[in-house]
Specification:
Elements (H helix, E strand, L loop, with lengths): L2 H5 L6 E10 L2 E11 L4 E5 L6 H9 L6 E6 L4 H6 L3 E4 L11 H11 L7 H7 L15 H12 L6 E5 L7 H16 L3 E5 L3 H7 L2 E6 L2 E6 L1 H4 L3 E8 L5 H8 L3 E5 L2 E7 L3 H12 L4 E6 L4 H10 L9
Parallel strand pairs: 3-7, 3-8, 5-6, 6-7
Antiparallel strand pairs: 1-2, 1-4, 8-9, 10-12, 10-13, 11-12
């Protein structure tokens, strides 16, 4: 069946239902459901060990699930890759070090049947046209990442599965990746991206999916997740009743270091005033009060911090 015909079938390009992955007695991914629609960029976020990599590897076809189902444009992962429907960027891409950049891309273009842009065009798209005759082993880390991205774009796939695409890239390289993803989104492609670069995530994400303990604990647009989130940081000169402060601020108070604390709370101009007033009433001096809220990183960190150790995610 022609790839284009397959791509037009399902409502969701990437569809994951009940995905479960076990390593012995460890359940790394626990019944995850995830959809990525045409023209949508989804960022998968969470702390190390949350299950992100295992989830993406199952979607890419590099890991066999213990349970559940994965479909890309209606096909299983391996069939979708063989049909040229998915473009994959791995953290360790294994690109042939003894080949020249242009040779590697040209090989992938020919394997894809010549569909889409040619090798030289793809190198130009990621800013590597001047390194076409350079051996892969002589590329810098950022250039190597760009080459991997060029290979993921071969054949104009309907699904992009990108693991840390901005790793090792400078600001110009990151901006180029943002532009490329926006272009592919405009063409109707779907993208699932993992990243620890929250500024990059905010620049590209239509939806952010947060994982913890192998499950999805929250999802929504960056604005949905952090519409009015403040993260107040402060230092206290003496001990104080953290439980009473948490009740006063209606938020959890976390110690970040010796004498340093953080409280995540609804964002408002009154938040700092309420904090200062409480300490004044308690006759405890505080210093260096700051508000680092409003960011996606702060919102996700607060979500993870507020997840009780003895409570399963929902």
């Amino acid at each position: 069946m022609p790839p284009d015909a397959v791509a037009l079938g399902p409502v969701s390009i990437v569809s994951v239902h009940g995905l479960t992955i076990r390593y012995g007695d460890l359940v790394a991914v626990d019944g995850v459901d995830l959809e990525v629609n045409p023209g949508e960029i989804v960022v998968l976020a969470g702390a190390n060990g949350a299950g992100k990599t295992s989830t993406v590897e199952a979607i890419e076809g590099y890991r066999v699930p213990s349970g559940g189902e994965v479909r890309i444009a209606g096909l299983g992962p391996t069939a979708a890759l063989d049909a040229g429907l998915a473009g994959v960027l791995l953290q360790d891409d294994g690109i042939y070090p003894g080949a020249k950049s242009i040779e590697v891309v040209d090989l992938f273009v020919r394997l894809a049947g010549g569909k889409g842009l040619g090798a030289q065009q793809l190198l130009a798209l990621v800013g590597l046209e001047h390194r076409a005759s350079t051996f892969v082993r002589r590329l810098s880390g950022g250039e190597h990442r760009r080459l991997g991205l060029a290979l993921a774009l071969v054949g104009e796939p309907v699904a992009l599965l990108l693991d840390e695409p901005t790793a090792g890239l400078d600001a110009e390289g990151r901006d180029r990746v943002v532009d490329l993803l926006h272009q592919r989104r405009s063409a109707g492609a779907a993208a699932l991206v993992t990243t620890h670069d929250f500024a990059f995530a905010e620049a590209i994400a239509d939806r952010v999916v947060v994982m913890a303990r192998g499950r999805i604990i929250a999802q929504g647009s960056p604005e949905d997740l952090a519409p009015a989130q403040s993260e107040l940081t402060f230092g206290a000169s003496a001990s104080f009743d953290r439980e009473r402060l948490a009740e006063h601020m209606a938020a959890r108070v976390t110690e970040t270091g010796a004498g340093r604390f953080r409280v995540a709370c609804p964002k408002s101009s009154a938040s700092i005033a309420r904090l200062v007033e409480w300490f004044a009433a308690e006759a405890v001096e505080i210093d260096s009060v700051g508000d680092t809220g409003g960011s996606l990183e702060a919102a996700i960190r607060a979500l993870l911090a507020d997840l009780p150790d003895d409570q399963e995610p929902t």
